[in-house]
Amino acid sequence: MPMKIGDQPFFERVNDGLEDNFMRSAVTSAQERMQGKRLAAVEELGDWEEWRKLGEEIRTHTLDNLDYYLQQLSENTAKRGGHVFFAKTKEEATEYIKNVVEKKQAKKIVKSKSMVTEEINLNETLESAGCEVIETDLGEYILQLDDHDPPSHIVVPALHKNKEQIRDTFKEKKGYQKTEVPEELALFAREQLRQEFLTADLGITGCNFAVADAGTVCLVTNEGNAGLVTALPKTQITVMGMERIVPSWEELDVLVSLLCRSSVGQKLTSYITGLTGPKEAFDVDGPEEFHLVIVDNGRSNILGTEFQSALHCIRCAACINVCPVYRHIGGHSYGSIYPGPIGAVLTPLLGGYDDYKELPYASSLCAACTDACPVKIPLHELLIKHRRKIVEDEKKAPMAEKLAMKGYEFAVKHPSVYKAGTKSAPAVLKPITKDNSIKSGPGPVKLWTDTRDLPAPSKQRFRDWYKQKQQQEEQ
Question: By the number of CB atoms within 10 A of the CB, which of 56, 169, 396, 469 ranks highest?
Fold first, then answer.
């Protein structure tokens, strides 16, 4: 299943997250730190809302004309000597890449960080074909060594690890002998990866944005590993989601400014790299062969629907960094490589409701995610649309919920039943309300009472109070 991480049911994953005190502490600290940096960075731009509006307009225009810009990108890439492949499905994408790898007889592959390659399970496909695949982003490298632990954050994949855990992983898997001091850990990883870059047969990257009118792929990074992935191996493959495209350099400038400030609170990241096809005669480095794989994998089904704005996402994770639900349950609880509010919206669209129908409910609907999004995706509204669709169109509401709503419908249609229910409510709910000994309610109520107090209903009903008030006024 594309994107899926783990086989645990949703609420088991949530409970694991809630019980992981270190993870919750790390997420809280990271959210506060990144949110603080983001607010400081956007302040410098002036009217941030105008920038957001411009970002939304660019993404809306691009998606409304996506066929035109993809064709333009393909033609311009081919003119510069690159090979372009449009993959309708995950299987088509991985099969094409595997064929290129086999044709080049590549055995060692270095990769820079890429969410779409995680989405299509590319590493597993290449490893099953006998290749050694090395993640070169530091966070991804740590997770790969740690028994292929999946990422828990779009920008900071190893957010759920502390330096002691990383030290132990390096010691167990690579013979590391020094301390947990971050500088020593980073130096060790750099030394380990340097030889991998020099001996790699093929490089694979993701794509932050592709510039249609130039045939250029743009990578936004802080570590410099993507530069080595694209400069040293003789063959390079870039994998991009079909929506990750801008018309020209002018629009790229706007979106990169929004991305850097929203993701890590920087004016610009350390490296903004533009790659245009294979190297030419005057170039001193770069691949001799370049392939661009443009992945659909369900995205075209979202175009033209009420959820199209979800494809505006520029993967900044600003929504994740302000989400109170993510803060408490962590990234792995979503069961998808796309966590947080954008994951709760996007994952059911790409992976279906059968596996991900709980995700739209993993939200308080506080709208902090919508306010933080630099391209104005109405995330909380899309979550509500998912909920409506799950109940009305997909008929996937839980049986307990269906029975409860049927019971409520019956009660409000029959005044005598409704009157009896409101009168008995204080007595019926008393055992599970605040200040009583029973801490957990029955059925669906348990999900509430396990983590919150249930207020006791007033012993006096509104109807009785209103009737009493009228009588007093008449007297």
Answer: 169
Report the 10 Å Cβ neighbour count for 218. 21
> Does the pLDDT at position 297 exceed 70?
yes
How many CA atoms does the CB half-sphere of 125 hold within 13 Å?
A: 21
- Residue 132 phi, psi (nearest 5): -95, 120
Is residue 383 within 8 Å of 356, Cβ to Cβ? Answer: no
In this prediction, residues 4-19 reach a mean pLDDT of 90
Q: Which residue has the tokens 């204080």?
A: 426
Closest of 154, 156, 59 to residue 115, by C-alpha: 154
> Identity (one letter) of the amino acid at 103?
K
Q: Which backbone phi and psi does 272 adopt, to 5 degrees?
A: -115, 105
Phi and psi at residue 373, to the nearest 5°: -65, 125
Rounded CA separation 83/73 (Å): 11
Give the pLDDT band of residue 283 (cuts 50, 70, 90): confident
| Cα–Cα distance, 341 to 363 (Å, whole number) | 7
Q: Are 279 and 287 a contacting pair, CB within 8 Å?
A: yes
At CA 373, angle to CA 22 and CA 29, rounded to 5?
Answer: 20
